[in-house]
Amino acid sequence: MQELIRRLLGEMGEDPAREGLLDTPARVEKAYRFLTSGYGADIDQVLNNALFTVDYNEMVIVKDVDFYSLCEHHLLPFFGKCHVAYIPSTKVIGLSKVPRVIDVFARRLQVQERLTNQIAETHLCMSMRGVEKQNSLAVTSAMVGAFRDNARTRMEFLELLKLRSAVPGVREGLSQGLACVGED
Predict the structure, then answer these.
(1) Are 80 and 182 in contact (CB under 8 A)?
(2) 134 Cβ partners below 8 Å, 6+ apart?
(3) Over the stretch 73-93, which tens digit does the pLDDT of each residue have?
(4) Which CATH class, in words, describes the domain spanning 50-182?
(5) Closest CA to 182 of 95, 119, 88
(6) CA 33/CA 107 separation, integer angstroms
(7) Domain boundaries along the sequence of the chain
(8) In DSSP terms, which residues pair with 82 in a beta bridge?
(9) Distance between CA 156 and CA 43 in Å, rounded?
(10) What is the pTM of this model?
């Protein structure tokens, strides 16, 4: 990869042997390996048996999970916030695992719609808004299970997202269910 970066610098009209660019290929490789580390991630290892049997069937929400990704079309960054909700039937997932699952898929070359579906296919349901350009929003969603079949459950989730600052001192984003929404 470093040789490709050196060639790219040359094609851009730069001198890859210039002092300020000598270590650039190594830095770029390290950055891209990190930004695309989701390809090598194993969801089972990320979850690390963090599924717990509980007698609980109310909506669980994890809100305002920052995500950063690279657009597959130009390798430029896009980012936003993701909100995840699910309704457990017999098991709940450790809350710290939700952002990790989001990161696995965000750390791949992406389009927002695929990112949404990949999280949904991991038994999440997601709607995200990320920055495309200044003063514009993009929204994608994938509703599954009760969020697709039950308008009341879907509306409850969306209304709970509006409670961002309504309850001082309460950490936002923890309730019950599984769906995901991002906003910038």
Answers:
(1) yes
(2) none
(3) 999 999 988 888 788 888 888
(4) alpha beta
(5) 119
(6) 9
(7) 2-35, 50-182
(8) 65, 182
(9) 29
(10) 0.69
Which residues participate in catalysis according to the annotation? 71-74, 112, 123, 125
The number of helix segments (H) and strand segments (E) in the chain equals 7, 8
**CA nearest 105: which of 119, 124, 123, 125?**
119
* Residues 100-130 pLDDT 10s: 999 999 999 999 889 888 887 786 322 222 2
CA angle 82, 106, 150 (to 5 degrees): 40
User: What pLDDT does 69 receive?
Assistant: 96
What is the model's pLDDT at position 179? Answer: 45
At 14 the pLDDT is: 98
Count Cα neighbours of 37 within 13 Å in the Cβ-side half-sphere: 12
Which amino acid, one-letter code, is at 14? E
Amino acid identity, position 182: G
Residue range 26-70, pLDDT digits in tens: 999 999 999 999 999 998 898 888 888 888 778 888 888 899 999
104 and 121 Cβ atoms separated by less than 8 Å: no
Distance CA 154, CA 85 (A): 10
